[in-house]
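User: Predict the structure for this protein chain, please.
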Amino acid sequence: MTSPTMQRRLASTTNVLVRFWRSRPGRIGLIVLVVFGAMALAAPLLADRSGLDAVASRRAGAPQWGSPSTWWPLGTDHLRRSVWAQFVWGSRISLFVGLAATVVTIAVGTLVGVTAGFFGGRLDGVLMRVTEWFLVVPFLPLAIVLATVLGRSVWNIIFVIGVTSWPSTARLVRAQVLTVKQRLFVDRSRSLGASSAYIVRRHIMPNVSGLILANATLAVPISILTETTLSFLGLGDPQRASWGKMLNDAFFESAITRNAWWYFLPPGLGILVVVLAFTLIGQTLEQLADPRLADR
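Assistant: Here is the predicted structure, written as structure tokens:
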């Protein structure tokens, strides 16, 4: 037998899922995201990893700058590597970096926002001054400097994006916590002797979790675009294929002047479609969390 509390939570979750699926933008975004996620997970089945190796591609007889009509399905690049293999395996890195960096961003931002908003006082002042410092410093130059100093690897890129992207989340969460902690059920818990950890766990976090989830889905496209930008600037992992690295190679090998559209168009469209899908999902979740946004 489930408790009444569990039944209410289950009914609430079901209601949110039904409302989300009825929203056309959210439904389209979710379907697109599932397709790209399935492609990234099934990369070993969809594209042979040997297509990423220039030596193996040469042995296989792949032409240089081969068009899709001569080397199915997306042609080859200047090193005779399969563009399809780079696109499929690159989706893994781009999505993984975007999701992992968002986890770091949301974790740090939530921790700072909840701590500053709930405890207030001098601690709030110190944390907000640190947050404002990160907001004042230009985001992209700071990310470029950190990526250059730390080195070119996937984990360093995740760390750089996470460390430089959390301030907006912290301010958003802090504002919500300041509102929630003034409500009567929080005062009632304090009067009954509840500890700060209990209040944060049972009252504060459940009331800000919807906002955090909506903000997370909107932070993923920013992380993906940042990874693409850093890889395009040559600061990504040189040993791993990613959509940003494909655009970097296409730019420096003059794929546009060669009219090799099959090299730069797939990663560009992939980034555009995935970012749009996450944005649609995030906007739908924001409307579910605050129905007043649906009228705008």
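The first helix runs from residue 4 to 22.
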